[in-house]
Amino acid sequence: MTKFKGIAASDGIAIASAFRLTEPDLSFNKETIKDSDAEIARLNQAIEVSKQELRTIQQRTLKDLGRHEAEVFKAHIAILSDPELLKRIKTMIETRHVNAEYALKNVSDSYIQIFNSMTDNDYLKQRSTDIKDVMKRVLSHLLGVPLSDPALIDHQVIIIAHDLTPSDTAQFVPNYVKGIVSDMGGRTSHSAIMSRTMEIPAVVGFQGSLADIKDGDPVIVDGLTGNVIVKPTADERQAYHEKQRQYQQRNEQLGAFRNAATTSSDGKHPIIAANIGTLDDLQAAIDNGAEGIGLFRTEFLYMDSDKLPSEEAQFNVYKTVVQKMAGKPVIFRTADIGGDKDLPYLHTPHEANPFLGYRAIRMSLDQPDVFRTQLRALIRASAFGNLSIMFPMIATVTEFKHAKRIFEDERTKLVAKDIPVGNIKLGIMVEVPAAALLADQFANVVDFMSIGTNDLIQYVMAADRGNRRISYLYQPYNPAVLRLIKSVIDACHDNGTPAYMCGEMAGDQKAIPILVGMGLNEFSMSATSILKSRALIKELDSREMVTLANKTVSLASTSQQVLKYVHQALEKP
Ligand code: PEP
Ligand code: MG
Fold first, then answer.
1. Which atom of ligand 1 lies nearest, measured to the CA of 505?
2. Does the structure show a pLDDT above 90 at 165?
3. Active site: which residues (predicted)?
4. Among the atoms of ligand 1, which is closest to the Cα of residue 453?
5. Is the CB of 309 inside a 6 Å radius of any atom of ligand 1?
6. What are the structural domains, with CATH classification, of the chain?
7. Distance 65 CA to ligand 2 centre (A)
8. Strand spans (E) along 292-344
9. What is the pLDDT of residues 375-405, one digit of tens each?
């Protein structure tokens, strides 16, 4: 047995065998071959096995995720059946007597180069990514190096990975992926947020060496404490099965809070809403008793597609969400593309500091056609429910006014065409310290503010939210962060503007008492945190929490002191 530590990123206990999701070594040498027929037969064999594998993945994806997701594998099979491409590879083997690996790479690279040079054809650019993927698969069979492909998983596993992108995580089928361990990432990285939404227990920022976990090793992931146990003893297995049972039992008890109002012990009613990224997440939000959607991360719609989603496609999703929420408020955030949510088909140049770069509202204002399409879809959907819009990463009042002008322009045009529109509130996310410091000015021009602590903390502390080595600095309870949050909430209230929070801190059980004391109006969180947060708030007296909040911002100088005050405030006399 070996025990490791990491950051607890998604609640729950998982026990299954390890599945390493690592980049394989596909390096090879150029070789001269004598028997080109035998070399071509080897290539044919690798192509055939790849096709069979792709057919299996296509069928499984179709069954588990749907037709749209399965299309990509159909395209991959088509590439492997393309006579022109195959002929060129085989001719190269025959005429230049090179090994199949070299010919395959050489020919496919030339295709990729041609497609990439067609700067104005997104469709062909996407085909170059497909060719790259397919060739990697064939190469792996030629070299006998297995690819660790999440789409091939057909039994219960714990994913072991160095890093996971949101699109990697989106491919996981929760029936098979029972837990996640990753080297990189903090609690607020988007993959961690997604694992919470998908209810997959996860530990990120792993502090051991991933090389110590072999494929198939039995692993326990404790997403409550951040412990990872490799090859557990029989006693440990038993202890964790018991912990798993207790966790499930507690969840069942929390079910009693599903349809209850959120009420503190002295009768205050903050709203608990859910953060979602896709239509698939909506049901969990409803099932967990969300009183609204405080953050719809619309960029996932863009990431789920190989081209910009049309106005109609967006309209249908937005309309469905507000209709299903049946009059409860839904806040859509306009696309926050960039940072760790790159869109390959936009071909944005690489940046040294993507989190400080061309992202979110900066990109929207720079590409007004894309922005206007999204706004039209949202404005049209507003006729079907209670819809608000907020802009991400706002740094200046000018940016907000600019975005608002574009919004009003689109609304006026739709109204002129007699298209029904609802009463839409406009707000901002407070993620940039400059916006937080100027909250009193913003409060005069916005309908609401929603504090995005995931980003705000990283900018206040100058600590990348996904970087394990400095994760100790990513401190939600640091008094500097708390003072800034309090000043935003106070500025809102001085102006009669509601203050919301949609960063992960809103669902953090240690932060909630402080935020109740600060008078936060809405807590928007992962659906799985709703019931326990509602249960916690029921126990809190908001007047005592005001004292706690004031203590944390005036007396504490460290996170530890803040946590001590929280602990004291929650202790029953
Ligand atoms: C935030 O920054 O707090 C937030 C909610 O946005 P995201 O996590 O998508 O960056
Ligand atoms: Mg953010």
1. 3
2. no
3. 190 (tele-phosphohistidine intermediate), 502 (proton donor)
4. 3
5. no
6. 2-23+150-253 (3.50.30.10), 36-143 (1.10.274.10), 258-570 (3.20.20.60)
7. 27
8. 293-297, 330-333
9. 999 999 999 999 999 999 999 999 999 999 9
